[in-house]
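Next comes this protein.

***
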Amino acid sequence: MSDMEIIFLGTSSGTPTKKRNVSSIVIRRKSELLLFDVGEGTQRQMIISGIGLRKNVRIFISHMHGDHSSGLPSLLQSYSLLGREELLDVYGPKGIIEFALTNMRLLCFEPTYSLRIHVIKEGPILETSEYVIKALAVSHFIETYAFCLEEKQRPGKFNPQKARELGIPIRLWKKLQLGEKVIVNGREIDPSLVVSPPRRGRKVVISSDTEPLERMIEFARNADVLIHDSTYSEVHSDKAIRNYHSTAKAAAMIAKKANVRLLVLTHFSARYENVDSLVAEARSIFPNVIAAEDFLKIEVPYPE
């Protein structure tokens, strides 16, 4: 089982339907949750999905439209009601601080935890020892960002057979795996003799609401998973243009040019009770396409 999983909590655009809630996506990476957008009802979707209101979470808001952000105040309040004490980081565009603080004041609650709100701009917005999250300004009615989670390189594979042939004691193997040189019988052993070159980590890109952008191609280059706005079919491409959204076919063109492994269509207009036609349109351009649905889970293995 992979230690990275994408869980879709809301896949409708604008308004919820009987089968789809509004926008929210979770990336579960090891013991951490990265929550992208918090449309109305997201916390209930988290509970239904089995995620629960876990404590080790970071929240990212792509833009301030209600179907992407209106669930944030109630989620912040629930964390207080549950007695959360751990620091909570929230990342979002201009207006996110006023939005959160005003709602907390009107809802009459003080958080039981430290709340740290970051106003984001294009570029890296979070870096840990294992991954970086970057934001890309996209084209929508208001300031809106796409997000990219990209893991840092992993160490290469250790070759125990080669290590034995070189007479390297097992107690020194770990140092070589960590990139350190060791001395064996007066001879310096370089890690490259027993460890393969570093391997790339995983990459997941979430487009949020946007019209098709050439800049998205480089942003999503070689991604393991690209999750892209696919609000409309080609039949309604005029609405996509007018409303600053993408069609499924346009999303597929970006996926093909970016050489991604998997394209996931989401943010469907409520007019499409069945999205098979949108998937078919996308697959005419790029074969490895699926449609998101609420509670869909996708494992993201390492690219070996």
User: Anything to note?
Assistant: The chain has a mean pLDDT of 96. The CA atoms of residues 257 and 301 lie 22 Å apart. Residues 160-193 form one domain.
